[in-house]
Each structure stands twice: as C-alpha cells, then as structure tokens.
Amino acid sequence: MSILKIENLNVNYGGIQAVSDLNLHIEQGELVTLIGANGAGKTTTLRTITGLVKPKSGTLLYQDQDIRKTEVHNFVRQGLVMVPEGRGIFPKLTVLENLEMGAYYRHDHAAIKDEIDHVMQLFPRLKERATQLAGTLSGGEQQMVAMGRAMLSKPKLLLLDEPSMGLAPIIVQQIFDIIQTIHSQGVTILLVEQNAKLALQISDRGYVMESGKVTMADKADVLLNDPRILSAYLGG
Ligand code: ATP
Fold it and tell me: What range(s) does the ABC transporter domain occupy (predicted)?
C-alpha cells in the first residue's frame, strides 16, 4: 500500500512556481530520497505534505486520506512527522524535555519512558547530556535531539529535511547510520538531502527534482550509477 501518494502537485509562491506537476509515491516500509539542487523545490514539497504550505492544485493522500482535509495539528497523531531543516528544537528546554515534547499528545507514560530510554540507547550522546539546554548543543547533537523527539511521536512516515546540513563528515555518517537504524525498525522515511551519494546508498528509491519538476525517478542503485546523476550530484 502507498503510505503517501502525490499526484499532479502544483505549488506557487506568488508568481513563482516552486513545484510543477509533481508525482511521487512512497510504499509502506520504504526509504525514499528526494535529491536536487538548491531551490529545486524539495523543502516546499515536504512543507506541502505537512500542510504548512497550501498547494495550488493536486492530490495528496496519506494512508489513502486526503491530507488537505486533515487539520495540521492532527498530523503527528496520525504518524506523519517532520524533522525540519534547521532542526526546530526548543533551545531553552533540556535534551530530556525536548524528547518529552515529542510525546506531548500521548498519555501512555510508562511506554514514553521506555521509548526515551530506547532513544538514549540509539543516541548515547544524548544520554550524557540529558539535562543540558538543547540550544547549547553542537549541530550534530541538535540533529540527534530533533530525530529523537520525532521518534517519541511514533512516526509512521518520517520526513527528514537535510539532516546532514552543516555537519562534519564523521557526524554526517553517524546521522545516516541512525536513519538506517530507524528505518530498520519499521519506520517509512522520506529523506531530502543535498548529500546525494550517502542518501542514495541507504535508500530503496530516489527522485531527482530540478526547477520544481521531477526529472528522474528510479531505484536508488540505478540512480547511483546513472552518468547524469554522477556528474550533476555525485561529483564524478
Ligand atoms: P534548498 O536545498 O536550498 O533548501 P529546496 O529544493 O528545498 O532548496 P525550496 O526551499 O522548496 O527548494 O524552494 C523552491 C523555490 O521556491 C525557490 O525558488 C525558493 O526561492 C522559492 N521559495 C521557497 N519558499 C518561499 C517563500 N516562502 N516565499 C517565496 N518563495 C519561496
């Protein structure tokens, strides 16, 4: 079953067409990457899926329901969870409080505690820093908090917007390892990344966006070996 299905999506900002006739689907359990240059429309696509941007036209189905009819505050309850570009953590709250915020709509306190323990195992660095204010963490640690908080929301479809942005290569590798771990635990993921090679290496399929349009869509290993992708996005 497609957990997400987008057909003929058009999004404008005033006179600028940011997304043109976009078609995209994600099957249950997949890890799918959306790659493309700056300004290609990747973030706009994610923001439209989560209701933050209203499309001009198109069909958006999440678990066969029309996303455009869903109230934005219900998305997280339904398992549609985004980690935005720039992480969106609460800087004045501690690491632990940030994680708890991910479970704000839940009342199963014992399960929440177990899941916080699980997130702390996944990110041992956060365990060490549980009482530190999140705004004082390094960029990589903040990304871990944002992803940990998203896990506490029990995502069915996790949207990750450029999780490697601004991070040192060794930290980027850690973040990608954690994305793979989260995926292996059954979470379906849509990953937006500039770091096309690493993203495609862990993905089932990929979409390439240029100037608001999908120009290629294929299995990740096919894209990884495509000469056009190699020269445009993989530096080879
Ligand atoms: P990046 O990798 O740089 O984040 P992107 O692929 O995510 O790029 P978008 O952020 O979706 O691209 O932007 C697509 C186009 O829409 C760009 O031309 C951008 O300038 C424009 N745009 C994005 N947000 C707005 C806005 N709020 N108002 C007007 N134009 C916008």
Answer: 4-236
